[in-house]
Hints:
Elements: E1 2-8, H1 14-27, E2 31-37, H2 44-47, H3 57-60, H4 64-73, H5 81-86, E3 103-105, E4 108-112, H6 125-137, E5 144-150, H7 155-158, E6 167-172, H8 176-191, E7 197-204, H9 207-219, E8 224-229, H10 232-240, H11 248-266
Parallel strand pairs: 1-5, 1-6, 2-4, 2-5, 6-7, 7-8
Antiparallel strand pairs: 3-4
Amino acid sequence: MMKISVCGKGGSGKSCIATLLANLTRDRGYQVLVVDSDESNSGLYRMLGFDTPPAPLMELAGGKKRVQRQMKSGFSQGESEQTMNVLAQHEISIEDIPYPYILQRDGIRLICIGKILQSLEGCACPMGVLSREFLKKLRLKDNELTIVDMEAGVEHFGRGVETSIDGVLTVVEPSLESITLAAKVNSMAAGSGVSNSWAVLNKVTSDEMASKLKQELSKRGITAIGAIQYDPELFEACFEGRPLTRGKAAEQIGKVWDFLLLRLEAGGEGR
């Protein structure tokens, strides 16, 4: 159906917004796949209510070194039988991904591309390539939606991850740095061929602050489609590493979800 990436600066609340959207998507009767494409943040699975993270998809691909070799030759050569059966397919459905590389809980499925786990491990480029290839081959049914929690910043645009995305949602917190990055994301989304790019405000403390943020984004050609107020309960859940509560933020994300669904469905079928 649709693939939506959630972008933004570090600490803006990308994982929180991705989780809120995933929970609401499930509650609205859709099948949702969450893709953890952030190689540094390790808390997404807890926010979604999972006890453990899924095994990294990077392991299914044979590890970072093998993916680095495959960057030139393609994923169809030299892979193990299991990898050949999945990642080397021209198209991949959610059902094709084997356990433990995909986990399911309460109607939400989760996969993880991979993480940087130790010093001197090298760059995260193979993870970006794997994200791009996986999303390019992933085919969704009419009632399925994919939410991708991207790494902070804009490097994933350089790796071409967004070339298989239907919509980009940038999380903007009350700071000039966050607004400036949103403008860069909006420009890079257009350069990647993504015409659907919007912002959602997060950690907003007042209606006045929300209005100021929307004005600043509008000056930069960015439409803010919703605002999530600062929610102490949400902050405590993140701090304690437990699933996000169904508080004020969960209610406010509903307007964002409705807007996304209407605009993306109007634009045709997802990739």
